[in-house]
Each structure stands twice: as structure tokens, then as C-alpha cells.
Fold this sequence. Notes:
Elements (H helix, E strand, L loop, with lengths): L3 E7 L1 H5 L27 H4 L3 H15 L6 H9 L4 H7 L1 H16 L5 H11 L4 E7 L5 H9 L10 H4 L3 E5 L2 E8 L9 H5 L14 E2 L18 E5 L12 H11 L4 E5 L6 H11 L7 E5 L5 H8 L15 E2 L3 H5 L3 H7 L2
Parallel strand pairs: 1-2, 1-7, 2-3, 7-8, 8-9
Antiparallel strand pairs: 4-5, 4-6
Helix pairs in contact: 3-5, 7-8
Amino acid sequence: MALEKLTVVLGAGASYDVHNGSVGFVDERARPPLAVELFQPRFWSLRVPYVGAQILGAELGGLAAQKREFNLETHLTNYAESANPETQRHFKDIPAYLRDVLLWCSYSYVPSPANYLWLVRRLLEPMTHEVLFIVLNYDTLLEDALSLYSPGFAIASMDDYVAMDPVKVVKVHGSTSWVVPIAGTARSPNWRDAVAAFDPLDPAHDRRVMLDTRREQSYLIRNIGTGDFMYPWLTAPTRGKTFRCPDTHREVARRFLRDCRKFLVVGTSGLDDDLLTELRDVTAGSEFPYLIHYVDPSSAVEDRFSSAIPAFCHRSPATPRSNRLRVGLNRYLAMPDLENLLAAR
């Protein structure tokens, strides 16, 4: 029997809620941050090595503190594409800083990604669905959960993200475990000199992205073979692209999404214009009814998705009167709604 399709969109709120009562804490200060928390004082020691992150972080942290709608990716793209060479230079430090923050959170908050494990088991236990995870986060907590659930879901190369069955993972904005070599920098004395002439938006780098799971801070990582410094592959997309992930990942996602009618949206603000645009384009003209659960304490997420993606206004008869489940991931997993989503036809 052919499997149904389910797309799961995971935002920062999902990783923020990764802990449950089945495990303790390694360090509660390392709770994965929401976008508005990425430049909080608790991460200052990780910001110190990156002057550009200190400079732009002063603005980003100040804006986030105002509690207004905060679209981090838009700000980062604007910095990256700025005509001011100083802003371009400062931006180069941002991916390294964000990688260091999310890397520390990934292995220092909890000993096991409990709620992601719970989610993965609940999704795969019935063996009724192919699952596409569209991940907006940089951390590797979902990947950790998948590899624990089954060795067959362990990701050891860039191809593995979209080669697994019945699970595929597309990381829209990159990952703490993705890097590209900064060619010709083997003799550079430090990371700052190495990145001085590096263009992080050059699409030629897309072909050089590699998986690197080392835990050293970004400014210390060198290519084991060549000695070149490495640059974190996350945040703003390269020129002419929508996503930071490889084009092959994006194409796999588009093929999956064309006839996927079930969506679980967890912990995202609905402010990621790149994702909303992609979903709008893929579903354009669709008359099929969609069944969507929005899992987030905010009530605005569904409105943002529905206004940006007209097809999502076509509701399945199985859609509850309100599919705004104003709870976090932990609370949602304790409810029967996920089983209802999987069972719906």
C-alpha cells in the first residue's frame, strides 16, 4: 500500500521545547534560543571572538528586545547584501557566531532530544506516512533524534538528508554541521585573515558544502586534508537562490510538496518569507483540501501562512474547527491530535 505524505515544518519553538520530564538538564542556560533570543547576554562569551557579531548583534539584540515582529533571516540577508563594505565585513562573523551558539545548545542543554524522539516515534510507528521535515533551525537536535531512532536515519553525508526512506530532511537555512572550505587559507595565521576576501554569497560554494560534526568553535576549524579554514554554511542564501540548502535538497522538497496534503507546523513564527514563498509557488493553483495543524502558543501563525499561501485556505473536511493548537511541542505530543492528523483521510 502506498504511503501517504506528511510535511513537518520545525521552527525555533520546536527546539526551544525539546526537553520533557523524561530527562534532566546538562545546563539549563543552554536552552535553544528563539530568534529573538540569539543575541542575549547568556551568549556573550561566544560573541567575543567575532567583532562583526558584536557590532551587528548590538542592533539585532536591541530590535529583538523591543518585542516587535522580528524576522532574523531578512535582517541577515540585508546585511549580507549591503552596499557598505564594512557591513559586509561584519556580516561574515554572524554565521560563525550563530553556529557556535546553536552548537553549544545542541550538546549542552539536555542529554537527549526527548521531544524530538517522541515526535519521530509517533510519526513513524504507524508506518503509514512518508515524512518530509522542513527545518528552519540551525541546530542538529532533529538529526540526533533520527539517528537514535534508527541507524538507517543517521546522516553521514549531504546526500543522506534526502536519500532516506520514508524520511527526508531539508534544512532551509543551513546547519551547524555544514561548512565550506575557504580555499588557499592553509597558511593564514587566523580565521579573521582567512575570511577577509571570502564571499559567503558566491553560489560557487554550493558545490563545496560538506558535513562536519566537530564541536570546535568556528574560528578554529580547518579542513583535515588541506589545512584550509572552514566557513559555516548557514543564514543568508547565496545570490540568486531562495534557500541556503543545496539545490538537490530543494528539488526533492518541491517534488514531495506537490502532492502532499497534510502539514504539521511546529514552533515557527510564520515570518520566514523564503519558506512561505516556496510553499505558495509549489501549491499555486491547487484545489485540493489541506489538513494542517499549527502548533505554537501564538495565534498569528495560521493567519500568516494562510494569507501568504492561498491554497492553504482550502480546508479538508477532517480539519477541526480551529487547527490553531496554541500549545508548545511538549503539550501537543501529550494530546491525541497527532494521531488524528495521521489517521485523517
